[in-house]
Amino acid sequence: MPNVILTGYIKGEELQEIYSNAGAAVLPSSHEGLPLVLLEALNYGLPCIVSDIPAHREIEFETVNFFPLNHVKQLKNLMLEASEGKMINYSMSGRDYVEKNFNWEVQADKLLNVYEQLK
Fold this sequence. Notes:
Blueprint: H1 12-21, E1 25-27, H2 36-43, E2 48-51, H3 54-57, E3 64-67, H4 72-83, H5 91-102, H6 104-118
Parallel strand pairs: 1-2, 2-3
Helix pairs in contact: 2-5
């Protein structure tokens, strides 16, 4: 596919540059914990194409496009849609969603609730 770049591991300013200029984020993972890459992509306002594993399904936001795990044809079709600009970008909404649901205070409260339930 033209214009698809597989970067390998990157960080810092180079990573910020890629998120800022990407047309979409693609996560075809079979295993994830909390999908930080997905949250980061949403924070940058990117449409996201992700496998339908449970960790990804926990992120319920309108620009997350799911495909069945290992379903290469559907992944390809979603990537083509993204490359043709057919996926809507809701940049501020994605930022707001991440801030509201995954900020430190919210996550710390959730963890505290788990500990309190174990008493």
